[in-house]
Structure formats: structure tokens, C-alpha cells
Amino acid sequence: MLSTTALLLSYKSSSLLAGVSDASLPRSFSSSAASSLSPPFHFLIGKRPRRWRSRSCRRGIRSMPCSSINAASVGGGDNGSFRNFMLNESTFLASLMPKKEIGADRFIEAHPEYDGRGVVIAIFDSGVDPAAAGLQVTSDGKPKILDVLDCTGSGDIDTSKVVKADADGRIVGASGASLPVNPSWKNPCGEWHVGCKLVYELFTDTLTSRLKKERKKQWDEKNQEEIAKAVKRLDEFDQKHVKIEDANLKKIKEDLQNRVDILRKQAESYDDKGPIIDAVVWHDGEVWRVALDTQSIEDDPDCGKLAEFEPLTNFRIERKYGMFSKLDACTFAVNMYDEGNVLSIVTDSSPHGTHVAGIATAFHEEEPLLNGVAPGAQLISCKIGDSRLGSMETGTGLTRALIAAVEHKCDLINMSYGEPTLLPDYGRFVDLVDEVVNKHRLIFVSSAGNSGPALSTVGAPGGTSSSIIGVGAYVSPTMAAGTHSMVEPPPEGLEYTWSSRGPTADGDLGVSISAPGGAVAPVPKWTLQRRMLMNGTSMASPSACGGVALLISAMKAESIPVSPYTVRTALENTCILIGALPEDKLSTGQGLMQVDKAFQYVMQYRDFPCVRYQLKINPSGKSAPISRGIYLREASACKQSTEWTVQVEPKFHEDANNLEELVPFEECIQLHSTDKSVVRPPEYLLLTHNGRSFNIVVDPSNLSSGLHYYEVYGIDCKLPSRGPLFRIPVTITKPAAILNRPPVVSFSKMSFEPGHIERRYIEVPLGATWVEATMKTSEFDTTRRFFVDTVQICPLQRPMKWESFVTFSSPSAKSFAFPVVGGQTMELAIAQFWSSGVGSQESAVVDFEIVFHGIDINKDEVILDGSEAPVRIDAEALLASEKLAPVAILNKMRIPYRPVETKLTALSSSRDRLPSGKQILALTLTYKLKLEDGAEVKPYIPLLNNRIYDTKFESQFYMISDANKRIHAMGDCYPKSSVLPKGDYTLQLYLRHDNMQYLEKMKQLVVFVEKNLEDKDTLRLSFFSQPDGPVMGNGAYKSSVLIPGKKEAIYLGPPVKDKLPKNCPQGSLLVGAISYGKLSSAGSGEGKNPQKNPVSYQISYVVPPNKVEEDKGKVSSATTKSVAERLEEEVRNAKIKFLGTLQQGTDEECTEWNKLKAHLKSEYPKHTPLLAKILEGLLSRSNVQDKVRHQKEVFFWFPVIEAADEVIDSIDTEELAKFFAFKSDPEDEEAEKMKNKMETTRDQLVEALYQKGQALAEIESANRDVESASEGSKDKDGNNDQSAWEVIDSDLFEENFKELKKWVDVKSAKYGNLLVIRERRSGRLGTALKALNDMIQEDADPPKKQLYELKLSLLEEMGWGHLVTYERTWMHVRFPPSLPLF
């Protein structure tokens, strides 16, 4: 995500230089916060920005149908040419929020009360700040924002824990803080729901970064203050003790030095996880209310207290919101669900949503020129951008947003989100949108995308869904001069270069209409500015949506039934054409929308039925595929005439009356073609409610190579002025064949001006797999910037797109390489950025040369089955001689897992019930993972990943947590790699749908966990020229030259079994890449990584079963014991083992355990393993940690000390020490057995010493606590009671510690706890804390809570308050009370 707080941002071209394959196409907003000289930026982390661009070159003009009402080109009039003009203050301000371009200003001037009043818009976006400028009230004084919802769940807090207030009116919050409750708050039942959250989880990355800097500055001041104190004490000690020989003095100095070192290291490792806010929810007898404690955010300790918080309820009820603190200036709203058990704190995930809402509806009473398009409209904010994912949309967010839009009876939806799609007009979300539009009559407006200038780059859902009005981005000269502050604006309006183009893969136009794609609009308060410039189709969509709101406002006032069908027809039939070429419609849709003319259309034809004409087109004689237009793209389809069957089906709204609307419906339609020499339809068609089919003949055989666009449209014979009732787009991209060998194609002397696009269509030769291209520029003065895109469309794949954004500061040449698919048409689109070179009198001249290369192979994906057999690969060069230099690596491991637990639940009806009444269900699948070493991993779910719109599954979300419930990774259908330390983890996968059968089928869903191998573990595979090469070790293959017409076979050998990565289980997959050629310019040392070569393919290796251990199952023949002795040993060991299995949870179980213990001790006295098991049993008794906190339970530790002493006394430590003084012979079986036995004995001794030390320390601690609590109290005789533990010699701990020190490193993570206690007993807190930090650092397992609790107590004792606060926050990070909600 790029910063959105600056009005002008410099563009970093490096982010756009790499090519993008169909597998890596991004999800993104359709907008940017940028200068006019930059492509649109996006607020998404880890995704590449989608860009969009401008007009086609002029090659002649054909008439195209647009409107019956004054249809005209944008070349003139108010929206047209401004070659010589000057801005004044008012026109400048007006340009910041463009309205003139779409006729909105004229419309409101003519109809001031039709300014959006009575219209409610649902903003599907990143969230809207209700405190932002212009978003408080409408033009007629009504509340602007009716509801603020977080549909993603990213702000949800579990408040199911219920507490009661104590006698002092205080409750214990979920964070553990004691919170006073305001006595004036009504709570009839006295139950308080509590929850807490790290506030950074609610903030954007930009805001978090700002707060971290400010908080770090404050923290550093406190830390430096403590460092100064610590250094002063050390200096005073050094001055007092010049020469130190006494051991105790040395330890004291070491302690002082440790304090200084700890404070300095803490500054280096400081990692601010943010303040924790406590939330308290209760029912006041009427509504649910919430109060927050935000003291941890505030600088002033008297601010942010819970009792001083003004309680909030669901935003919809009172329309009140809060602000966390003046420091963050972040506004939030709240909603409560599930009887107070879930609190949703709603914050925005980026400024994008507020900006979008401002364009559509902002009202500034003092600054009317900065009003949004429809200042009288109201809105609801539906946050679909998940804060946990950096503002990415999720299926959950999208579905809940649709539910909310219907529930609030919205008229309009604006959505400025999207991504490329596998299948157009397909998927769960599209199905739900169809229902909302067709049944509930909502009008859905969405951005077409920012991936231009190439064709077929429109994104889902805006550019690919029939029920949605997809909007392209237009820039006028006034916008260029004012909004973008250009020195010299373009002479006429045009589509932004980056605006996505149609058609869709199934031939639909893609872009419906165009609207201004840039504005300076309101942004959230946390940005610390009122307005910001953003441009993108994200801005065009709300501009169009605001225009539609004006139209609906007028229709309601005029009592005209509002229908998405009527509105869309009016918009499309009254647009102003942008550009003079027919194919410009692929960029602009029907043109620039005009609100005033659309209203005239609606008024004129208000009595006509509300009908949508659904088109289903397929090749004659074939039932599939069904498309929405005709798209002839490949060479084979352009060589001869084809016949197409068109089915036209009138669609009425679901509430249409059969007798009054459906039966009488009959239209005589005259069919027109924009060029009958190419596209020939019948002349007339009688259309009834049941639909009608007809045939079209398309003959592209006589067309020249290049882009051609035509339309067949139907006109009402009785009233032609209605304009086209439906349109059938026909797009033909006739490619040029490359016949010369080697295959080289050059495009010379292409002349470019700002916004100009050159498109070339090439039939990629069969056998070509990659391209090496060179772009040369000349004859220009100022810096020029170009988009260079290529697109190929393959069946059931996202468009295969490569793109580069290049800058030429002076005439020069640049080289590119990218993959291609042989036999498929490739579009090459070169566009000079619309604002690049403006003001220059010179055109840039471009020469572009493409050289096709290719090595044809017989396997697109190579699978090694785990056997020793190699895989044969046949390679052939079909175009020209190529060097065959195969390279293959395996650098990832995929381990399959099945769920260990499944849970199917019905979700809350308050926000998860569909408009149809169906309840959404959730399936939670739990997987257990174990990492033997730290690694970079990510979940991989082949069925679900990489699809959000083009899938029939509703949504997915995963979380990976450790044993302490700390979340280490989370994601949705686009999983990201996360670095996880060694340990055990739980992966939970959350799936949603209303169909139980679908979810039932997913209960055994296999999830792969993909682990990136380190460089040292990456396997480089070998190639051979003979099939026996991998076994015989001969015939190694390096490289050769392929000659056209001659195949060559090579053999890929499996990896050497001994080189397989450790912890690689049977059935897992090793995956990587294989390539066969490299760049012609590559040197001898280059090309060793197949993924860096021009084209690579996936390779997989199935890990076979592990080899059987040779020694497994062997029984030693050397034994000197008799059968009776061996039997006695087995019986004894079985009894000891049985003792260890007994539970001790109740008094009865403890009694039985004690009886068996006594019996075994009498039967096997001084038997160390038995005594060690008894000690283990004593320590395993439940609630030990609670018992030692009370005086009456302190005697628990005496049996532990006694049991430990028995273990110690049973061991001859002198003999043990002597044994380990000598090395044993590893080849002597008996010696090895003795070694193992003695090591076990040593471990039992060490454990006994350690547990004895722990027990002695607990007794001392309890003694101090009781003495403190009973200070001054006496018995009735006036004498102090003798403490029961005074019988313990205080020197015992030190003696025991010294004994332990003989056998182990007491600084290790396992035993260092006693070292910490020892130093603490001696008052050397700095040394104790250093030892504890070393233990924590060394401990590779998940963090142990008791160690951090001990650290907190040490910090408190040392008086380092700033570190206490810091560590308490981290305690909530490391040890959350529960897993977060999905």
C-alpha cells in the first residue's frame, strides 16, 4: 500500500517494470492518490497496481448509435476543446470536484431540489469517516450517513465474557485492568460484557506508522531518563570502589552494568504493538451500549478513562461516533451483535472509501463548488476492505454489504473495487448481485478497472457483470488544468490511459459509460488533511453514481417508477461520444454520461415497461459456449464467415404483473448493423415476453489486420427515438501472421502524442514460447513515459497480461522479454501516458521490434512420481535454431493436511441472513501443523485460492496460531507467506455458504502448507541423455542446439534421496520450476534459475515412503541376565509406569496414589526411577500454581522437597561423576547401554535438584507474602505465630543451587529460572533480568507465560514503568485470552 496522505506523489516506475502473468494479476482498488504525471496508485500491500490508459488512433470514422437526444462528440461545447483558456478561482475550485463534464451542474441549476434528495447510496468500499468534511448533513439538512458497518469482521471483538461490578463499582476488563464504571450508566441486569483489542489492529498502516513514530519518541525520552539514572549509579559505584577484589562487589558492579546494558538493548529491540483498549458492553434496558477505556493511547493519564466515555450504541440508532484520541484523530462507530457478545468497532481501512463517498454525495454549505455530485443524497457505509488484509475485499464483506443494502432499502450501490476474472459474469457474488438488482431494484455502479490500455482488461465485477454498470475514467481539459495542475492541458477530453478496456472474454462491451476519473475530495481526519487528490476508475464510479442519484431523485419526485433497467437505458442512450472511432467504445463505453439528457429521456419514455434485454449468443448449431457478444480474436476465426445465433430474452422485475406487463408485451424491432458488409443481421424481429432468436452472419475475411468494432442494435419500429433497446457488440482483432523465419516483426516510425495508443495484433507463431523485444525512441525533447502492454486470451484463464511502464528521459532503447503462447493472438498496446509530453511541440517516434523464440515441449507440467525412473521430455524448435539449456529446481515443499476437527454452525441472523431469507452457515476446519525448524510458509488450497468473484463459494478466511493462541498469519483466497518460528501451530480455515450440502462436502478438505526451502536445501535436478543415466551416473546432459524440424529427447532425473530436505514426510510434494531456454543475450553464468528465464513451467516431485531402517526390529543377543531377573525388571517397570498413569484430580484419587506409592517404595527402596516417578507425580497435581499463593497450601512443597531428597540420596553422585569423567566406546554395545543408563540417572538427579530449588524458592516467596500481610498481627497471647516454614534453613537454596551447577549449565533455558531466583534473592535485579532475557532468547519453543510474568515482576520491582507498560502490551500479543473472531 502506498501512502495516501500526500496530494502529489512521485511515481516509482520499478513497481511496474516486471511482467505479470495470469497467475499474478492483482486485486486492487480502481484508484490512486497521485499527481497527474503518475499512473494510479493503490492502497493495497503486496499487490501490483492496476493501471489504465487512453484513446485509440484515428483510422477513419464509421457512425455508431448513441442517442436519440442530441448525441454529439466531446470534441466541442462545454466538455470539449479548451486549447486556449484560463482558469479563475471559481472554475479552478469547480474542477477539483468535476460535475460540469456529466451535466450535473446544469441539471441541479435547472432542478435544485433534485440534488439527490430521497436517494440512499450504499458505498461498498474501505469505510467512510462520518467526521470527514462534507459528510455530516445533506443539502436539505438531513443526516448524511445513515449507517456505518464493518462487513468484513476485521473490527469485531469477542465480548461474550460477562462480569459483575464489585462493591466499589469496579469491574475487571478483558485486559486485566481494574475499571471503574460510571454510576450513572443504566444496567438493570448488572451484567457487563468485556473485551479488548490492540488498537493498531483497527488502524491503517499509514496511521499506525505515524503513531509509532510519535510514541517511539515519547518512549525514548523515558528510556533515556532511566539510562541516565543507571549510568549515574554505575559511575558513583566506580568512584567509591576504585579497585574491586571482593567477589560480592564484583557481582554488584556486574548488576549495575547489566541494568545499563538492558536499557540500551531494549531501545534497539523496541517494537510497538500499540495500546490496548478495553471495551465494556451492556444493555441499558432499551438498547445495547458500549464504552471504551483508551487511557493507554492518551498522553494525559486523566484522559480516556472508561467512566468518562460517552456511551455509544449502534450507529444506525443515534448516529453518534467517537474518536480514540487527539493523537490519532481516528473516528470510529460501533455496532453490537449476538445479544452483546460481539462488538464491531468500525474504522476505515484506507482513505479510499471516504474519498469515494465525498465525490458522490459531499455537501459543503460554505463551499458549494466543492460539493459532491449529489449533495442531497444519503448514504450507508459498508466496509468491504478488510483491515487485517491491508484493505483487500473478502467474500464475507461483499455478501454482508449486499444484505445491508437491501435491509436499508438503498437505491444505489457504488463499488470501487475489483480484480481480473477467470470467467466473466460468473460467481457467487454475481449471483447475489443479480438477485439484488432484478428483485430489489437496486442500481449497482462499479469501476471498470485500472489495467488499460490493452483490450480485454476490464475487471470483475464492474466490467464483467451484466447487472452492473461498469464505469471508465475520463479526464477533461478543465480537470487536467485544475485538478491535476498541468501547465498545458490536452486540447480535448479523453479517457485516462490506464482506464480498463473491453471487451470481456465473452464479447460483452465491458465498459458501460464513462465519467470523470479524478477529484480532490474529502478524506478521513486521521490523514490530518481535509481533502486529497485521487484518480482512477474508483473516482469515475462514484461520479457516475452521484449522477444516477440525481436522476433517481428526479424520478421519485416526478413519481416515475425507478428501475435499474430504465436508468441504464437512459444513461447509455444519452451519452456523449468520446473519440471519433467506433472502437473507441471499447475504451469509453457508450460515452460520457449526461445527467440532464438522461432525465429528459426518462421523462419522455416514462410509460414504457421496465425491461432488460438479455442476450445469449452462440455459434449456430452449437449450444456452447454462450456469450454476451461476438469476439473474433484468433486468426482461424477471422478467415471465413461465421453464423451466430442470438437469443433475445426480455427480463422483467420479479414483481412484474403477468397480465398487465408480461402478456401485453410485444415489440416490433428493426435490427441495424453499423457495417452490413461485415455484420449482417435480419431486418426485423417481433419480440414477445418469451423471447426470440435470430441469426447474424459475420464475415471478417476481407478486413485488414488490426482492430475492428461493429454493433448490431435493435430499434423500436414504432418509436425509433427511444434509441437502441439492446446492442450486440462485435469485436474483431484480426492478427497479422508472421511468415518470415526467424520470426521477427518490426513496427517503425510510430508517432506518439500525449494519450495516443498504437495497437498491433500478431498471430504468435506456433512453437513460440517467449519474446525478446526492443523499443527505440527518437525525435523528442522532454521526458516521455509509455505503457507497453501485451495481452493474450486463453480458454478458462485470466487474460495473460504482460506490462511495463517505461520512462525515456532522452532518445534511447530499452529491451524486454516476456512469455507468450504459440498459436494465440497477441495484442501489443503502446501508449504515451496522457499527461506525458504535454506542452511539447515534438512528437515522440517509436520503433518496436519483436523477435519470437520458442522451444516446444511435450509436457507443460512435469511430475516426478517418487520412483528412481527419470521423466522423458521431448523438445523441438519449430521457428529457428535455439539453444536447449534445461534448468530445473525444487525450492518449495507442500505438505498435505486433513482437518482434525470440523464444526458447522449457523451464523447470526443480524448480519448473515440473505435477502432471500436463507441463513448463512459457517464451516470451521482445524488443522494441526508442526514445524521442526523456523520457515516461511503459507497455506495452499487448490480448490479455493486466487478466486474471489469467479467462484461459487462465498468466502474463505484462515488463521494460523501457536500454542498460546497468538495469531502469526491470516489471509483469504490470496494467501501470503509468513515466517513462523519452530513449534506447533493450529490452522483454522473458515468457509461460508448458505448451502449445507456444499459445506458438508468440504469437511475433509485437504490443505497444503507450502514451505519455502532455504537456499542450502533447494534441489537442483540433473538432466541426462540416456534413460539409465540417473542410476548409472553416465550420459549427463548440459545443452545443445535444437534445429527446426528435429526433436531431441532429454531425461530429467529425480532428486537424490539423501539430498531431500529433512522433515519431508511421505506424500508431500516438492515443487519448483523448469525452463528449457534462456535469453539470447544471456551470458554463460546466467540462466541458472529457471524462474528468471523468459518462460518456466511447474515441476513437482512426490516424496516416496522413507527407507526402512536397517537396525529397526533387531534384538540384542548379548545379555547376562536370567529370565527370572528380566521378568522381575519388566514387572517392576510396569508397576512404575502404571503409577505414572494414575490421575490425582480428587482427594480419593490422591489417596489411592499415595497407597500405591507407599507400597512400591517398600517393595523397591532406593530405586531411583521409582523415586523420580513419585516426584513427577507430586508435581503433576492440579492447581499447584494457585495453591502456593495461600499460606494453608504452602505445606504442599514439603513433600516435594522430601521426594527430591529421596531421589538425590538414592544416587551415588561420586560414582556418577567418575563415569562421566571418561569416554565410552560407541562400538561397545554394553558400554553404550551403561552410558544411556547413567545419562538417565544424571537427568533424574538434575531434575530432583531443580525441583527442590523451585520448592525452596516458593516457600521463601510465600513466607514473604504472609509476613507482609500479617505484619504487626499477634496471637491472643501476644506472641507472633512461628511460621511453619521456619524449619527450612535459608542456606539450603544456595547449597542446592551449587550442587545443581555441578551438573548442568544453570544459564540454560531449562534451568535458568533458579539462576534468576538466586540473583533476585541477592538483590541483583539487573543480573536476574539479564539471565531471564537470555533464557527467553534461548528458548525455541512457544513463549512460556510464567517467564514473562517473572519478567514483569522484575521490571516492576526495578521501577521501570515504561518497560512495564511495554511488556504488558506484549503479554496480550503473546498470550491472548482467546482466538480472535473470524
Automatic annotation (TrEMBL):
Residues 246-273, 1117-1144 form a coiled coil. Residues 1261-1279 have a biased composition (Basic and acidic residues). Keywords: Aminopeptidase, Coiled coil, Hydrolase, Protease, Serine protease. It comes from the Eukaryota. The keyword Zinc-finger does not apply. Residues 752-836 form the Tripeptidyl-peptidase II galactose-binding domain. Residues 878-1064 form the Tripeptidyl peptidase II second Ig-like domain. One of its GO terms (biological process) is proteolysis. Residues 626-732 form the Tripeptidyl-peptidase II first Ig-like domain. Residues 1261-1281 are annotated as: Disordered. Pfam families: Peptidase_S8, TPPII, TPPII_GBD, TPPII_Ig-like-1. The active site is at 125 (charge relay system), 352 (charge relay system), 538 (charge relay system). Its EC number is 3.4.14.10. One of its GO terms (cellular component) is cytosol. This is Tripeptidyl-peptidase 2. Gene3D superfamilies: 1.25.40.710, 2.60.40.3170, 6.10.250.3080, Peptidase S8/S53 domain. CDD domains: Peptidases_S8_Tripeptidyl_Aminopeptidase_II. Residues 116-579 form the Peptidase S8/S53 domain. The keyword Coiled coil applies. It catalyses: Release of an N-terminal tripeptide from a polypeptide. Belongs to the peptidase S8 family. It is an enzyme of class 3 (hydrolase). GO terms for molecular function: aminopeptidase activity; serine-type endopeptidase activity; tripeptidyl-peptidase activity.
